[in-house]
């Protein structure tokens, strides 16, 4: 599967960000891309650095709004499957961080609402997002069954495993993560490499390719309380043994990576982790802590 990733720095102009992305989607399709994956909350700046009720104005109607319509048209015009990440206005006072997957004919193949919601300095997502209620359910598309998760979900092996058990053929993570400016260079590297390593581990443990797309660029803290976030990019694609097929740097890029979807079957025959799971002994996983 020819898989395109678009790693972009954003401005405060959502319409301009969207137009740039659609231009890049068109370019990727012209180069043969079949699947295009965008980063988390790609239409705006990462607004969760502060708690500000006015930021709810950024949320969109993912059923009938013009924002999703533009992406549906781009997917249909180019015959690509498109993974988007939008701030969903579900009802007054009820919002989600939602990935919408659009099939190659422009129809909505499915949605995933981010399940794990962080609440850390400069990542105040619990203020904005209601935890997802659609479960860890893969989305069927014309290219196969996609296990779409979002950012903070990528640290949880349970989420990846449940997607795999439900038949996902690829794990996909739209992401927005970056450096805290007060951390040392060594600490920044440890955090970035841990982020890559844990996701490569999901590929290995489940015998599936992983596609992760992060944003780049420095975004100021509107409150002035911190020095903002420098998003570290490093979007990557890993194969089902965790092998890196592609890794970006910290600049804007588009890239198309050939992913051998048949390889997962071979790898799972060599390493039958799903066969050897002790499902009779895992009840403790449903508890917060085993005392």
Layout: helices, strands, pairs:
Blueprint lengths: L1 E6 L6 H17 L4 E3 L28 H13 L2 E11 L2 E9 L5 E6 L5 E2 L2 E2 L14 E3 L2 E5 L8 H9 L4 E5 L3 E3 L4 H22 L3 E4 L2 E4 L9 E4 L3 E3 L5 E4 L5 E6 L4 H8 L2 H4 L15
Parallel strand pairs: 1-2, 2-3, 9-10, 10-12
Antiparallel strand pairs: 1-17, 3-4, 4-5, 6-7, 8-9, 11-14, 12-15, 13-14, 15-16
Helix pairs in contact: 1-2, 3-4
Observed structural traits:
291 residues, alpha+beta, Nitrilase/N-carbamoyl-D-aminoacid amidohydrolase, 6-stranded mixed beta sheet, 25% helix, 27% strand, globular
What would you note in describing this structure?
With 291 residues, the protein is an alpha+beta fold. It has one domain (2-276): Nitrilase/N-carbamoyl-D-aminoacid amidohydrolase, CATH 3.60.110. 25% of the residues lie in helices and 27% in strands. It is built from 6 helices and 17 strands. It has helices at 14-30, 66-78, 157-165, 185-206, 263-270, 273-276; strands spanning 2-7, 35-37, 81-91, 94-102, 108-113, 119-120, 123-124, 139-141, 144-148, 170-174, 178-180, 210-213, 216-219, 229-232, 236-238, 244-247, 253-258. The strands form 4 sheets. It has a 6-stranded mixed sheet. It has a 6-stranded mixed sheet with strand order 8-9-10-12-15-16, with helices on one face. Helix 1 (14-30) packs parallel to helix 2 and helix 3 (157-165) runs parallel beside helix 4 (185-206). The longest helix is centred in the last third of the chain and has 22 residues, at 185-206. The protein is globular, with a radius of gyration of 18 Å.
């Amino acid at each position: 599967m020819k898989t395109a990733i678009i790693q972009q720095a954003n401005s405060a102009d959502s319409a301009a960000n969207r137009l740039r992305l659609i231009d890049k989607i068109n370019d990727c399709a012209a180069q043969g891309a079949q699947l295009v994956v965008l980063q988390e909350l790609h239409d705006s700046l990462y607004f969760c650095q502060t708690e500000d009720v006015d930021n709810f104005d950024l949320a969109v109607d993912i059923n009938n709004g013009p924002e999703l319509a533009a992406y549906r048209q781009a997917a249909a015009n180019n015959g690509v499957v498109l993974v988007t990440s939008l701030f969903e206005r579900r009802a007054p006072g009820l919002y989600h961080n939602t990935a919408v997957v659009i099939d190659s004919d422009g129809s909505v193949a499915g949605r995933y609402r981010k399940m794990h919601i962080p609440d850390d300095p400069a990542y105040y997502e619990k203020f904005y997002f209601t935890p997802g209620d659609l479960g860890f359910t893969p989305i069927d598309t014309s290219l196969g069954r996609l296990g779409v998760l979002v950012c903070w979900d990528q640290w949880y092996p349970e989420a990846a495993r449940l997607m795999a058990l439900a038949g996902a053929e690829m794990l996909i993570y739209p992401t927005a993560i970056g450096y805290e400016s007060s951390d040392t260079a060594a600490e920044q590297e440890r955090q970035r490499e841990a982020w890559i390593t844990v996701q490569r581990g999901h590929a290995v443990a489940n015998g599936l390719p992983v596609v992760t797309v992060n944003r780049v660029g420095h975004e100021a803290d509107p409150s002035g309380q911190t020095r903002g976030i420098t998003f570290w990019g490093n979007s990557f694609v890993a194969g089902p043994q965790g092998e890196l097929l592609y890794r970006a740097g910290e600049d804007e890029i588009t890239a198309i990576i050939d992913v051998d979807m048949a390889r997962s079957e071979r790898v799972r025959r060599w390493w039958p982790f799903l066969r050897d799971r002790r499902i009779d002994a895992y009840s403790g996983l449903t508890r917060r802590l085993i005392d």
